[in-house]
Amino acid sequence: xxxxxxxxxxxxxxxxxxxxxxxxxxxxxxxxxxxxxxxxxxxxxxxxxxxxxxxxxxxxxxxxxxxxxxxxxxxxxxxxxxxxxxxxxxxxxxxxxxxxxxxxxxxxxxxxxxxxxxxxxxxxxxxxxxxxxxxxxxxxxxxxxxxxxxxxxxxxxxxxxxxxxxxxxxxxxxxxxxxxxxxxxxxxxxxxxxxxxxxxxxxxxxxxxxxxxxxxxxxxxxxxxxxxxxxxxxxxxxxxxxxxxxxxxxxxxxxxxxxxxxxxxxxxxxxxxxxxxxxxxxxxxxxxxxxxxxxxxxxxxxxxxxxxxxxxxxxxxxxxxxxxxxxxxxxxxxxxxxxxxxxxxxxxxxxxxxxxxxxxxxxxxxxxxxxxxxxxxxxxxxxxxxxxxxxxxxxxxxxxxxxxxxxxxxxxxxxxxxxxxxxxxxxxxxxxxxxxxxxxxxxxxxxxxxxxxxxxxxxxxxxxxxxxxxxxxxxxxxxxxxxxxxxxxxxxxxxxxxxxxxxxxxxxxxxxxxxxxxxxxxxxxxxxxxxxxxxxxxxxxxxxxxxxxxxxxxxxxxxxxxxxxxxxxxxxxxxxxxxxxxxxxxxxxxxxxxxxxxxxxxxxxxxxxxxxxxxxxxxxxxxxxxxxxxxxxxxxxxxxxxxxxxxxxxxxxxxxxxxxxxxxxxxxxxxxxxxxxxxxxxxxxxxxxxxxxxxxxxxxxxxxxxxxxxxxxxxxxxxxxxxxxxxxxxxxxxxxxxxxxxxxxxxxxxxxxxxxxxxxxxx
Length: 763
Prior knowledge:
Membrane topology: Lipid-anchor; GPI-anchor
Number of helices: 10
CATH architecture of the largest domain: Sandwich
CATH topology of the largest domain: Immunoglobulin-like
CATH class of the largest domain: Mainly Beta
Radius of gyration: 41 Å
Number of domains: 4
Shape: globular
Keywords: Cell membrane, Glycoprotein, GPI-anchor, Lipoprotein, Membrane, Signal
Structural class: alpha+beta
InterPro entries: COB_C (IPR056900), COBRA_pln (IPR006918)
Strand content: 25-35%
Region (Disordered): 33-141
Number of strands: 38
Helix content: 10-25%
Subcellular location: Cell membrane
């Protein structure tokens, strides 16, 4: 034990001694190396000094000059070094900035490398030296033999105001939609449906337009939306382009606002699908931030014409052709043809608006005019920068969104702006069921372009077409679609045809007015009930009420006596209150707001007997503008089959349109005058009126229940506008006092209206 402890105690100092010796050796070695370096430096310095002394002895006179030059050179070198350092610092800053831009986008979300250069995340083509190469195509695209469609959610950020309610919080988002033609046939005028459902508002689209022509921001979060290609509307095949994905595919940048979906949830659409005819799309494959599908040709679909080069023409309620008649380098002449193909569609004093997308402006027009002539927008815009010596005082319109109107009839034979067929009718466009010769309007315009479209083939039609009239249906127009050039007769009179240089078609369809946005309304009455059911409260809106008006927009309209229909709403209050007292009806506080409609129509069931029944219709014009060549249409459904005759109007039954009775005034009685003042200042104003009795037979409709509702129309139209109907119909007994004394209400109402009609005639 003693030996062992002695040995262990002797080991420790031996190791310490060895470690200290090693450290001393290292220090000595480093000192020797430094000394050698210093001695070498001194030797070099001495040799340099000796050489310099020898040179100074030989050239003492030049020494000062050389020293001066060397000093200047050293100063220049220092300044150059300083500049190079600054440049290197700038380059390093730029590199760091670029690195930051590549890693994060404007929303703070990481960017996918190469996502901006290709639809697949790679370069679209090689650069000629083999470095680029073809893009990396995913397997889902390679296996598609039709139209590959995709949607990618790119990122979002929280918008102001910041609220605690998650469903009310808005988020700015961006997304990307893509289409690739992987099939063997060219896709013309592509349209893609995106099923948004998070209360989205689209703010902008890059590479497409809204197919329905809505303005931004557009609410699309209820029923989704359809986008159409612009300016690249067609997608060619790999066969046609030797695999050029720039012509085969398109990428659409989407920016907008959505509500209620906070991270980590991803606000993806319900679905995406191709809207072009002849394609069937399966349910898309959905991932967390992307979805895609391959739309293939429908084998059951048979196109009407497979030989045409462009998209087939479609036909809607209002069809417009934009034909280029002459094309030059920086301008072209176009003709716009508007045709009404709906049996109940109509426009009065129409206004047409569209949007120039590439800086075009209207130099002159024939057959129409613009509401504003302001050359300043051209002079101070890109048009003035290019056309510096151009006389813009002769330019008709420089607006991005011009408002175009038809010329009045007296300008039809004007040598400068008239003398066009189907022009100059003061904006009247009638249905073909009424007058086929006035169902079309035409005007021409001279359009100037700016760079880069200075080529006679670089022609882009305006987008976002919209029509409006005085009291007419609302139209929604699609995007212009390139179609086969329109054929025109040879102006020389020869049996030849002249083709347009290029043609686009715009299709517009009538939309059903939203609740409380109508422009006409209907009242109901019947021989078996004393009360008149008035138009709905705020049937035509309550936005334009005078300040200080106290009324309820939600209270139901109050029942009226028959004579109250003949006076304006402001004169009905006392009559309605008195009638409520007589019939023990409730009074509202505040009282219901007016209907605010310019035109109202009373439908009165006049009589009901074994072999038939009769109704009486009265038109009221409460506006300050008269209606020339008016028409009305009554959709009767089952009862329409028994239509016999209209006594004071021209009436026709349209079987194809749900048994709709089309009525217009007789010659000399086709003018519905405007409202006018009463006979004295204390008398209420008197509306314009027209009235007729309509008879029906029960030979084919003997099972009709007239009091049960079969005697009242399902829809009523005035000049093409669908009117608001009451929510209830007159009933026997029930809440209102009723009686079967045939003709009491009819006698009162007819007598008063007949009196006013007679007095109007004698005046």
